[in-house]
Write a structure and sequence with these properties.
Blueprint (H helix, E strand, L loop, with lengths): L1 H4 L36 E3 H7 L14 H4 L4 E5 H7 L4 E4 L3 E2 L10 E5 L8 E7 L8 E9 L1 E5 L1 E5 L2 E2 L5 E10 L9 E5 L2 E4 L4 E4 L8 E6 L1 E5 L1 E2 L6 E6 L4 E5 L1 E3 L4 E6 L4 E5 L3 E4 L11 E3 L2 E5 L4 E4 L3 E3 L2 E5 L3 E4 L7 E6 L2 E5 L5 E3 L8 E5 L2 E6 L10 E2 L3 E5 L1 E7 L4 H5 L3 E5 L3 E4 L3 E2 L4 E5 L2 E3 L3 E2 L11 E5 L2 E3 L19 E6 L1 E5 L2 E12 L11 E3 L1 E6 L6 E3 L4 E7 L6 H6 L6 E6 L21 H6 L8 E5 L3 H4 L1 E8 L15 E8 L6 E10 L6 E10 L5 E11 L6 H12 L6 H4 L8 H26 L17 E13 L8 E17 L2 E15 L5 E20 L2 E22 L2 E22 L9 E15 L2 E2 L8 E3 L2 E15 ...
Parallel strand pairs: 1-2, 2-5, 3-6, 4-7, 5-8, 6-9, 7-11, 8-12, 9-13, 11-14, 12-15, 13-16, 15-18, 16-19, 17-20, 18-21, 19-22, 20-23, 21-24, 22-25, 23-26, 24-27, 25-28, 26-29, 27-30, 28-31, 29-32, 30-33, 31-34, 32-35, 33-36, 34-37, 36-38, 37-39, 38-41, 39-42, 40-43, 41-44, 42-45, 43-46, ...
Antiparallel strand pairs: 10-11, 48-49, 53-55, 54-55, 56-57, 57-58, 58-59, 60-61, 60-75, 61-62, 62-63, 63-64, 64-65, 65-66, 66-69, 67-68, 68-71, 69-70, 70-73, 71-72, 73-74, 74-75
């Protein structure tokens, strides 16, 4: 009857959020002073009671009606006042309160709260009975608010009774919202709880089109409402960022639809036999249920959370003590459980479950997007019919990790569809997916050693298995689950039992290789030793069965034994042979059995390196049988050396390598010849692999020849030399490691000597410029040598780059300089002075290294002199610089990286002379003076050893570099303007004779672990030629001070440089 009475209330409307000011430290302050909502006039219940006709009496609360207290938009109750002041510490009603009635409109927005800030909640009761108990009676009350807000309060609705027991009462309904008026029902919780102790029914409604809301805004919140499963029409449950909401002993399932929103850091808990059902159908106008960065926990065997197509993003789902997450549409139709970002789904007990609709619990789609979704069962293996019951799994761009999820067969038997696409990864523990009908891997990866499909009994295999641009990775798969004994995961098998199997695009199968082999379960019997992982393709069972595209598959070998060397791979295996694939290997498959339609791809050094193979880089393999006729793929390894590794060498060399293996069962002999022939029209080559199989008596059984074009070699002198250093030191370069070989050599240190020489060149030019003065021709000495000596200071900063040059990498550099000088002696013909200085220089973004840089601090000391004769001004300088360098170099070693630090000292001895001709007559207000110069620098660097892992740390020997630079230029100055400014400038060409004759800087190095074995390495420089142009302004001479500033741009043979500086001198 009660539900029929309230049916008219059940419809929907849009809602807007309520606002309440933040709580303040607990004081005598009333909650009324902090409760507010924009646009509403809120009345304080305590004040209204004290100042109204009620004479300070709170109860019965229903007497707070507009004719008594005046009209308000809402009422605010201080929970502490109620608990401490009201009779019995409760709020008592003797009659209905319905905000839709005009005289109850002040109850539309009702707040109960406390200003306490200790995280606790002030508890009080709301009851109903008639206080006047002269006679016996029972009072039934309905409470209706448009919006109810609880803060720092624990409110309990319960039956009431007078002290004599003659008067009793119940709150039959708590109604929030109305189907025709108001703004839409909202129950807002701010560190609060709401409990129904007895038989109160909850109804929530909103005007047409809206949805009532239960919203946990802050703190820890609890709803204990009993069974409200059919009282609500529509509902949304929202847990805001950082808030917690627990449903305890509460059943709520709206009659039509609902949705859930859980924010970042928020927690939703459904426990103590609670059921929260927020379902909808496809096409619903309601938002999709989402959990963004939050946690959802369902705890208890009878506790259940029911959602339609929820999306979990960077969230955690925990199902404890038999808790159930049920995903379905309201009409019982299949729905989807979606994850994106990094998520965890954990089954904390054997009875915990994720299910579909009641009628078909396994009719559920699991979707995994970007990120990693991990499924675990810390509570042990799920019971029958429990756990993750899905029949379709779709992985799109993300990773599904089930390696920590141990299940019964009924869970994996339910899978009928698995797709892994767009960079997605399926990472599982070994399992048997018997009933898979469709297996689609398109641009995805299977990290697995599982079996897919079955032909036993009525099973007819995978209807369609399709691999496109995909990877099957045995090596990185999990060791958990049922598998082939206890052999290494890379030596296990992945089994495809299918009616139809197709490969397209470019596919990889990553298998482990063990030259010595491993025994199943540790039992070594003849014929049971396993030397390689295998792809097992059992295809057939139908008149239309096909196996196609096997020539798009590349088998990528990986080392199982980290200590195995090239000779072990060649001599190991089954007499040098490793089986990596089989077809027709299922005795239950007897109809229209399909074998391989072609042999797999022939490998090259480049393809194995790109795939990250960690076997020695001097090895490739050849297919030594006929996969089409033999129904298996046998490979053998050949040592082709490093001479034609395109990542190491600078160019291909004609080479031929031959290996012979004998098949142990038949005695047939396979002669493998690999020939590399450079292509004269390109920088590439052609690799020809020929396999001739003969009987023991010599008769030829077959001859197979495969030609593969090789990409151009990209190695450098330094990669070739560091490869020689590695092998000479007893080390091994793997195919995958070869991709990072450019980070292993010391080219950065060799090239850095260029930066030191550039720093010297900048310093020499600064000293010479200040020695002769900033003027041009007749103006250069004015006010100086005639009148006395000078003190000067010059600063400069430059940034430049050196381009890559052939086999050498480029880099960026920075130069900074501060020099102080003074004339120690002067005469009308000349002067002699000295200087001291401090500078820094650095290198970064070296294109042959990752995250590597060098920086130096330097101190300088030297002298200069100037001599004027006739129309010539001769200037010279000589000095020395001491520098300390700190460096960081990152070495890429296979899949890892080592960081190395360096610290070393260096010195530069430098000298320069320059002659300026001052005999040209001015052209109006412009003066010009040509100049000729020669400069020399000798840089010497101490040896050092990098810190870090000794396997890739370098030991750098003492080294040196020189420059001999001749220059010719033209200086000019212009007319004074702007109240005392003179334009000045120059153009200068420089030629480095030593850079012209020696195109590189050389350095010797060894690995720190083997200092006795070294190699020579080279670095680039700026090149022999440069052209500089400078423009600036100088204050007009005439006072004791001379100030100038300018910019300089330089184009070098292999780069450019831009900088500027400021100079000040004082005549004393």
């Amino acid at each position: 009857m009660k539900r029929r009475i309230k049916a008219a209330l059940l419809c929907s409307s849009a809602v807007t959020g309520l606002f309440l000011a933040s709580t303040v430290p607990a004081t005598a302050q009333s909650y009324c002073s902090v409760a507010s909502e924009p646009g509403l006039s809120l009345g304080c219940a305590r004040t209204l009671v004290d100042g109204s006709l009620l004479n300070g009496v709170l109860n019965p609360a229903n007497t707070l009606i507009n004719p008594v207290i005046g009209s308000h938009d809402g009422l605010v109750f201080d929970s502490d006042w109620i608990a401490n002041s009201a009779r019995g510490g409760n709020l008592r009603f003797e009659g209905d309160v319905k905000f839709a009635r005009p005289f109850n409109s002040s109850w539309a927005n009702t707040y109960f709260g406390s200003v306490r800030n200790d995280g606790g909640q002030t508890a009080f009761d709301v009851t109903a009975f008639n206080f006047r108990d002269v006679t016996t009676g029972n009072t039934v009350v309905e409470l209706q608010f448009d919006r109810l807000t609880l803060e720092n309060s624990a409110l309990t609705l319960k039956d009431g009774a007078s002290s004599t027991g003659r008067q009793t009462g119940q709150i039959s309904y708590l109604l929030i919202g109305d189907g025709a008026v108001g703004r839409g029902g909202v129950l807002a919780l701010r560190n609060a709880s709401l409990s129904f102790e007895d038989s109160t029914d909850l109804f929530m409604a909103a005007p047409s089109g809206g949805t009532p809301v239960i919203r946990a805004e802050t703190g820890d919140n609890l709803l204990q409402l009993g069974n409200q499963s059919t009282n609500l029409f529509r509902l949304s449950v929202v847990v805001d960022d950082g808030a917690n909401l627990t449903f305890g002993g509460t059943a709520i399932t709206p009659q039509t639809e609902g949705y859930l929103t859980v924010g970042s850091g928020a927690n939703l808990i459904v426990e103590n036999n609670s059921v929260l059902g927020l379902l909808s159908n496809v096409g619903s106008s309601l938002p999709q249920s989402t959990v963004n960065g939050g946690t959802v926990t369902v705890d208890g065997l009878s506790s259940e959370l029911r959602l339609t197509a929820p999306v979990f993003n960077n969230s955690t789902v925990s199902l404890e003590d038999g808790g159930t997450l049920r995903i379905e549409q309201r009409n019982g139709v299949r729905s989807t459980l979606s994850f994106s970002g990094d998520n965890t789904l954990n089954f904390g007990s054997p009875e915990a479950a994720v299910l579909g609709a009641d009628a078909n619990p396994q009719a559920l789609i699991l979707e995994v997007g970007a990120g990693t979704t991990t499924i675990t069962n810390t509570g042990g293996v799920n019971n029958l019919g429990r756990g993750l019951q899905v029949d379709q799994v779709r992985i799109d761009g993300g990773t599904l990790d089930t390696t920590g999820y141990s299940v019964r067969d009924d869970v994996t038997d339910a899978w009928q569809y698995l797709s892994v696409e767009n960079g997605g990864t399926f990472y599982d523990r070994a399992a048997f997916y018997r009933n898979i009908d469709r297996l689609i891997v398109d641009g995805g990866t299977l990290l697995t050693n599982s079996s897919f499909g079955d032909f036993f009994g009525a099973a007819d295999g995978i209807e369609t298995a399709r691999f496109t641009n995909s990877t099957i990775d045995l090596v990185s798969s999990s060791s958990a689950g049922s598998a082939s004994g206890n052999v290494s995961v890379g030596l296990r098998s992945v089994v495809l039992n299918a009616e139809n199997l197709a490969f397209a695009g470019t596919n990889q199968v990553r298998v482990g290789i063990s030259p010595a082999g491993e025994c199943v379960a540790g039992i070594c019997t003849p014929g049971t030793t396993i030397y390689a992982g295998e792809l097992v393709a059992n295809v057939g069972g139908s008149s239309t069965s096909t196996l196609t595209g096997f020539d798009t598959v590349l088998f990528v070998p990986f080392a199982i034994d980290a200590n195995a060397v090239a000779a072990d791979y060649i001599a190991g295996g089954n007499n040098g042979i490793y089986t990596v694939a089989r077809a027709d290997y299922n005795p239950d498959l007897t109809v229209n059995v399909q074998g391989f339609d072609a042999g797999p791809q022939a490998p090259t050094v480049a393809s194995l390196a790109a795939a990250g193979s960690d076997i020695p880089a001097n090895l490739i393999y050849a297919i030594v049988n006929n996969p089409v006729t033999d129904d298996q793929v046998d490979i053998a390894f050949i040592d082709v050396g490093l001479i034609n590794n395109p990542l190491i060498t600078t160019g291909y060399t004609h080479s031929t390598t031959t290996t012979i293996v004998t098949e142990p069962t038949t005695g047939n002999i396979s002669t493998i010849t690999v020939t590399v022939v450079p292509d004269p029209t390109t920088t590439g080559a052609v690799q020809t692999t020929t396999v001739v199989v003969t009987e023991p008596g010599g008769a030829v059984i077959s001859t197979e020849t495969v030609n593969v074009p090789l990409d151009p070699a990209t190695g450098t002198t330094n990669t070739t030399n560091v490869a020689g250093l590695i092998t000479g030191s007893g080390g091994t370069i793997t195919h995958g490691g070869a991709t990072g070989i450019g980070t292993l050599h010391p080219e950065i240190y060799a090239s850095y000597m260029t930066v030191a020489l550039e720093h010297s060149d900048q310093r020499r030019n600064m000293v010479l410029l200040n020695a002769r003065g900033m003027g041009v021709a007749d103006g250069k000495a004015e006010g100086f040598t005639d009148d006395g000596r000078r003190f000067w200071i010059d600063t400069a900063i430059s940034a430049g780059n050196v381009d890559s040059d052939g086999n050498l990498a480029g880099f960026d550099y920075n130069l900074r300089e501060l020099i102080l000088g003074a004339d120690l002696w002067s005469s009308p013909e000349g002067r002699i002075g000295a200087y001291v200085g401090y500078g820094t220089y650095s290198m970064d973004e070296h294109t042959s290294a990752i995250a590597s840089d060098l920086s130096s601090t330097a101190f300088h000391l030297g002298a200069y002199g100037v001599y004027d004769v006739d129309d010539w001004s001769l200037t010279g300088m000589a000095g020395m610089s001491w520098a300390q360098t700190d460096g960081t170099r990152t070495a890429i070693t296979g899949s890892g990286a080592n960081t190395h630090n360096a610290n070393y000292s260096s010195r530069t001895i430098e000298a320069a002379v320059r002659a300026e001709y001052n005999g040209w007559q001015p052209l109006g207000a412009f003066s010009f003076a040509p100049e000729f110069g020669l400069g020399y620098a000798h840089y010497s660097q101490d040896g050092f050893t990098e810190t870090g892992a000794s396997s890739s740390a370098l030991n750098i020997y003492d080294t040196s570099a020189e420059s001999l630079v001749a220059s010719i230029g033209l200086n000019f100055s212009g007319p004074e303007f702007g109240g005392g400014l003179i334009p000045i400038g120059f153009a200068r060409y420089e030629h480095d004779f030593l850079a012209s004759s020696q195109r590189t800087h050389s350095i010797d190095a060894s690995f720190a672990s083997t200092p006795g074995v070294s190699q020579s390495f080279v670095g680039t420089h700026r090149g022999p030629d440069s052209l500089s142009v400078g423009l600036g302004l100088r204050a007009a001479p005439g006072s004791a001070w001379d100030v100038s500033a300018g910019l300089v741009y330089t184009v070098n043979t292999y780069g450019e440089e831009f900088g500027g500086g400021i100079r000040v001198s004082w005549n004393f």
